[in-house]
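ok trying this again, last paste got cut off
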Amino acid sequence: MKRAIFRQHGDPAKVIEIIEEDDPTPGPFEVRVRNQVMTINPADLLSIEGRYGAEPITLPATPGVGAYGIVDAVGEGVTRLSIGDAVLPVGGGFWADTLILHERMAPKAPAGADPEQAALMRANPGTAHLVLTDIVDLQPGDWVVQNAANSNVGRMVIRFARERGLHTVNIVRRADVAEALTADGADAVIVDEGQDLAAAIAAAADAAPKLALDAVGGTATRALGGALADRGTVVAYGLLSGQPNEMDARDVVFRDVRLQGFWLFDWYRTATPDKMRELHAFLEAKLAEGVLQTDVDARYPLDQIKEAVAHAARGGRNGKILLKGDHNA
């Protein structure tokens, strides 16, 4: 089997490497999964760089939180899965062509789903759905503002908000993505060119937003907080800038604007089984409806991991970068 590892933090394209190991054998209640698709997310790159919030981690480490694979061996006592079943692994360390998982960590993929879209189903769409539903009581007609709106999470937020009758103001850095976001259902797109963002948001929305979604951090958090209604909430779910979140004391003290974090991995650690089933049922339904369709910019075999992470780190992309396993049918 092959898997990607990094032995030290640094530039992903420089520190990531592929190692080969003997094929593992599943133990009791375990299954062996041959990955066909693995996803690359910003959090993976930040983790390799040592800039992700979950640090410190034990090195060497294997990144990756999204995958689609096929069960090709089962251990004693496995009852829920059979050889040939398609699964969506839960957990991490998935940049490998072969995994050993407890059967409860290998839920079946939706029947007939496209492997690439299924691999992308859980992380970004799950975050988008939960930040819209679990934090602020939003009603049809309310406004939401977000930065990094051209990210996969951002585009899912736009689509889910539209379905719920919510309005969105979407901040991006490139004018050429505005048309795609409008097609997704964006009510307003603001190209960040160094202007007063709070004023631009106020001009774009007919009511002050109750919720802001921040994937950037640093001064971007301050701009979102300044645009919110009194007692509004900024949800920080990413840190693309690598800078600490900033808030204006006038917004925090005198208008009760709040900053709250969200991390999907932590949500899974604390959610009840019923909540997890509810989320997965929602995502499977949206996948079947085509709502979760995600653009893919390029695909690389696992052996070309350095090229893949370098591509994923570049600006100007119009879709996800995927890794492909050696066991594709």
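PB: full thing came through this time. Residues 198 and 223 are 6 Å apart (CA to CA).
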